[in-house]
Amino acid sequence: MKQTLLRGRGICCFMLLLTLQLHSTNEFRSFEKKWTTETSLYVRQTLSEMKVPFAVDYDEKVENLVKRYVTRGSRSFEKMLGKSTYYFPIFEEALRKMGLPNELKYLPMVESRLIPRVESSAGAAGLWQFMPATARHFGLDKDEWMDQRYDPYLSSSAAANMLKELHEQFEDWELVLAAYNCGPGRVRKAIKKAGSRDYEHLKSFLPAQTRNYLNKYTATALVIENHRILGLQPKGFDLDFQQTTVLKVYDWISIEGLSKAIGVDSLTLQRLNPAYKKGIIPQSELGNLLVIPSNAALSLETFLLSRGVNNISYLRGEPVRIEVEPTTEYWASAHVRPLPSKAVFQFNLQGLLSWSHGWGKSLFNTLKLGDFLSSNFFKLGV
After folding, report:
1. Engineered SS bond to 251: which of 42, 134, 257, 360, CB 3.0-4.6 Å?
2. 289 and 334, same domain (yes or no)
3. Among 109, 106, 95, 128, which residue's Cα sits nearest to residue 274?
C-alpha cells in the first residue's frame, strides 16, 4: 500500500515538473516571438538616431542587451517603466537645476532598477547607488535614524551635483558615466595608459563592468524611448505614488502616528519615505523631507482644522492672516516664487506631533498642493 502511494506521489511530482518545464519552454518561445528580423533592423537604425549625451554607433552587445530586455527580461522592464512615472519627474527636476542632459535620468534604472532600498555587496545604496564616502562628500547624511542615500529627492540632487562635477573634470559624457561607475581615479589612469581621452581608445583599460555599464545605459535608453514600438507596456504603479505632496519637517514625527492622522496606510508612507530606518523622522534644524499621497493632503488640512487652524488662505504676494482659536491671531508674510501650475506654502504646526505618539513639539511643513497659478510661502506659529 505504501509503495503504491509513494509511486503515485512520484508520478504526480514528475507530471508537475514536466508541466512547469513545458510552461517555461512555451513562455520562452513566446518571448522569442517578440524579436524578429524587423525588430533587429529597427534597433540598429534607432541606435544611430538616439538622443543621449554622446554619439552612439551600432554595437552588437547593445543589441543583445535590448533583445534581453524586450524578451526574457520584459516583465522586469515593464515594472521599471511603471515606476518611472513616479521617479522620472524627480530625476528630471534635479538634472534641470544643474543644467544637465535630461537623458541622464535613465542612470538609476541601470544602477538600481528603480528600487530605492537596494544595497550592493560593495556598500553602494539607493536609487543612484552612492558609496558612503561619496554620499558624505555630496551632502547626504547617514545616522541611526536615516540614510539619505535612500531618499529619492536628496539622492537625485546629490547625483546631479556629482555628474556636473565629473563633467567639469572630464568634459565628455562617456567618460563621465564611466567615472560614475568605477570612479574618476580609474578613468584618469585609463586616460594615462591609453594616451587618449577618447572613450573608444581607452575603454580597454577600464574594468569590464564599466564597459558593460555604458552598453546597459545605451540599451536601457533605447528601450525606454521606444518601449511601445518594442511591445512593452508599463506595469501599473500604486496610485498613491502617482500624485504626491512633499513636506519639510523640522521636528520628530512618527510615521505610524501620521498614518492615523491622515488615513494613509503606514506601509505606504514608509515606501514613500524609504530614508527613515525606524519609522521616525528625526529632528533637524535644516529640515527633513516627508512625502505623502496628494489625496491625503485634504485629510491633513481637515486634521489641522480640527486642531484649531482655520481660515487658511492662498494669496499672491499679500499678507496672510490665519486665525487660531477665537482670541489668538497669527500673521505671516507671503511672497511669490515662480513655479508653473504649482502652489507652495509653509506653516508651523503644533499638535500633530504631540498627537502622533508624543514625538516633538512643533512641525514645519512645505506642502505642494493642487494646480494653483502662483507659489506662496508663509510661516505661521501655532
Report:
1. 360
2. yes
3. 128
303 & 356 share domain: yes
Within-domain flag for 5? no
Scanning the structure block, which residue is given the C-alpha cell 515606501? 271
Place of cell 491633513: 300
| Grid coordinates belonging to 220 | 536601457
Residues 275 and 278: their CA atoms lie apart, in Å, by 9
| 3-state secondary structure (DSSP) of residue 347 | strand
Q: Are residues 215 and 179 in the same domain?
A: yes
d(C-alpha 241, C-alpha 107), whole Å: 20
Q: CA-CA distance, 250 to 348, in Å (whole number)? A: 9
The answer to whether the beta carbons of residues 281 and 252 sit under 8 Å apart is yes
User: In terms of DSSP bridges, do strands 343-349 and 320-324 run parallel, antiparallel, or are they unpaired?
Assistant: unpaired
- Measure Cα distances from 247 to 10, 204, 297, 374 in Å: 59, 47, 10, 18
- The pLDDT-based confidence of 303 (bands split at 50, 70, 90) is low
**Band of the pLDDT at 31, cuts 50, 70, 90?**
very low
Residues 6+ apart with CB under 8 A from 346: 248, 364, 365, 366, 367, 377, 378, 379, 380
When the pLDDT of each residue in the chain is averaged and rounded to a whole number, the result is 75
Helix/strand/coil percentages in the chain, nearest 5: 50, 15, 35
